[in-house]
């Protein structure tokens, strides 16, 4: 039994010597490979991973504070508070809010008012405020690779925006009628030329020299004390 066990490795050794390793050069030089090389290379498709992050990330704004700042800038720009010729980021088209996941909800209560204020200025494209179901924040944060994503804004020039808009066709546009009326009146006033005010004279009760006024008040207090003493002496007599 021991001899048989010793021969087994020798037989395996002989078989290894007889077997010949097939290399890539052999496959390339073989007639079969040469005949099918053109067709196989033409039919082969390789999926190449894209370099860098997705393009849409450059068109997103994440976080309650960042979205709030952008909305405030957009409202001021539409109302003429900021020079329209100055370079500004593109407008926001959609705002996704994870209201069910925000605690307390008052952290995002100001967003509908800002969106309504912007839409009341009659922009080319209104902002849609979309409320997401519970658990959406966890899904968004997992995709983005950050801890919290309570609010996300999508720019109007984002790629594949039409696909996103097709999913939120039933979302109403928030507006404020009283703000729209105020904006229209402001536009009419701004279109009417107004003569600037020129102040020629100014009357005030404030003293010109504060130091002299302070000394006069101090002297008046001393005189009042002296008069009070004189009255008390007169009564005592």
From TrEMBL:
A Gene Ontology BP annotation from the UniProt entry: tRNA processing
Any one of the GO CC terms: ribonuclease MRP complex
Region (Disordered): 1-44, 207-237
Pfam families, A to Z: RNase_P_pop3 (PF08228)
UniProt cross-references to InterPro entries, sorted A to Z: RNase_P_Pop3 (IPR013241)
GO molecular function, one term: ribonuclease MRP activity
Annotated protein name in UniProt: Uncharacterized protein
Organism per entry: Lentinula lateritia
């Amino acid at each position: 039994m021991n001899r048989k066990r010793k021969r087994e490795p020798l037989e395996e050794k002989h078989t290894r010597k007889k077997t010949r390793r097939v290399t890539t050069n052999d496959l390339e030089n073989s007639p079969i490979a040469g005949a099918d090389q053109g067709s196989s290379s033409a039919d082969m498709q390789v999926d190449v991973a894209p370099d860098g992050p997705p393009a849409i990330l450059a068109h997103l704004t994440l976080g309650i504070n960042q979205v709030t700042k952008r909305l405030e800038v957009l409202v001021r720009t539409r109302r003429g508070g900021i020079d329209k010729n100055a370079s500004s980021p593109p407008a926001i088209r959609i705002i996704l809010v994870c209201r069910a996941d925000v605690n307390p909800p008052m952290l995002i209560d100001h967003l509908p008012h800002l969106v309504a204020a912007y839409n009341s200025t009659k922009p080319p494209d209104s902002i849609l405020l979309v409320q997401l179901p519970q658990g959406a924040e966890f899904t968004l944060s997992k995709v983005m690779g950050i801890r919290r994503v309570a609010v996300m804004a999508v720019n109007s020039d984002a790629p594949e925006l039409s696909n996103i808009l097709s999913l939120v066709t039933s979302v109403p546009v928030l507006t404020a009628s009283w703000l729209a009326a105020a904006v229209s009146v402001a536009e009419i006033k701004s279109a009417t030329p107004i003569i600037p005010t020129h102040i020629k004279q100014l009357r005030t009760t404030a003293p010109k020299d504060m130091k002299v006024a302070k000394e006069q008040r101090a002297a008046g207090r001393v005189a009042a004390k002296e008069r009070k003493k004189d009255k008390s002496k007169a009564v005592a007599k």
